[in-house]
Amino acid sequence: MVLELEHLVQPKVAKLKQRIYEALGAEKPINLYYGFRAISIDVITDYAFDNCYNLLERDDFGVPFFSMITDLVPSIWFFQQFPLVQQLAVKTPLWLAKLMNKSLGSFMQLQADCREQIVAVKAAMDAGKRPARMTIFHQLLTPDVTEGHVTPTIDELKDEAYDLLAAASETAGNAMTLAAYNIVCNEDIYKNLAAELKEAFPDPSVELDFLTLEKLPYLTGVIKEGLRLSFGAISRLPRATPEPGAMFNGYPIPPGTIVSMSSWMMHRNEDIFPNAEKFDPSRWLDPVTARVLDKHLVAFGKGSRQCLGMPLAFCELYVTLGTIFRHFENLKADKTELQGLVYEEYFMSIHPANARKFHVFAE
User: Fold this and answer.
1) For 2-232+268-362, which CATH superfamily applies?
2) I need a labelling partner for 239 at 20 to 30 A (CA). Which of 48, 58, 197, 253 fits?
3) Which residues, at least 6 apart from 125, have a Cβ–Cβ distance to it below 8 Å?
4) Are the C-beta atoms of 21 and 325 separated by less than 8 Å?
5) DSSP per residue over 111-165, as a string?
6) Model pTM greater than 0.85?
7) 84 contacts: CB under 8 Å, gap ≥ 6
8) What is the mean pLDDT of each run of 10 residues along the chain (363 residues)?
């Protein structure tokens, strides 16, 4: 599946590479904090909707879009406590929502656009038209009736569409930002990664393919450290213990018991990851050690609830970081201030709006 989608990722990465060349040529810094996030959104909208948002084409990489997502995240907690308010909020007319609050208006417009897109897909399917390319929603609207699946409603799919966008807006972008920052700010890591990429791709004009990139041990270590120290979700994710119950460290857990864990605590466990706060790609280089560490890398979750977007995210991470650091060997960045590293929201790992974003520039 990933190889089928790589053709969506490559042109987005090529566009970001072009933007970096243009910025450095004009002796200007470029905001990769949003550049990396724009790649994720452009890929998922192209794949899910066959309607790319083209945030990479915008001068600011679509800052208003990401601000809209992050501004609305805290409302999740409020609506959990007051579900009646949520029912009223989602029924607010679009024109009124735009007058009441800019972020709410943008959110309602996004939901309206998602709904319109899904309605168009369904209408084309009902008319027997074959799509030029299958999207997620073509597949969701064609359930396997032999398995007893029920076709989701338009409103259910509209909510799924928003969830896809919200998830794509921060997760892979966080990992790429953290990894790139640590590469640029660490001369040895930068040198080792650039040397590995040059050896694998001596001709800088060729496209860096995913199959080759994922076999590079140092790049893989960089990516896994980026995933370990960044977060798609920081907070504990609850799960219900299935029948007939379970045993954990000698303790019986009855069926139906809610259990949870946090990737933050797992990834910073000194017993598993010594010197856990250090960004250290070399900890993944020994194959035997790496197999042990992989068991405890839960950036995408584990088991039946593991993130479905993991293969696509890995493709984005490998192709983006591989391409950028094969072509740019002298990038610099300002050190991030400590107050910019705190989290303002502890589910989607959102930093304060006024935190200094990750910009790169040439020496």
Assistant:
1) Cytochrome P450 (1.10.630.10)
2) 48
3) 138, 141, 142
4) no
5) HHHHHHHHHHHHHHHHTTPPPSS--HHHHHTS--GGGT--PPPHHHHHHHHHHHH
6) yes
7) none
8) 81 98 95 95 88 94 88 74 78 78 78 85 83 79 64 83 80 92 96 98 96 97 96 81 90 92 90 96 96 93 80 95 96 76 71 81 84
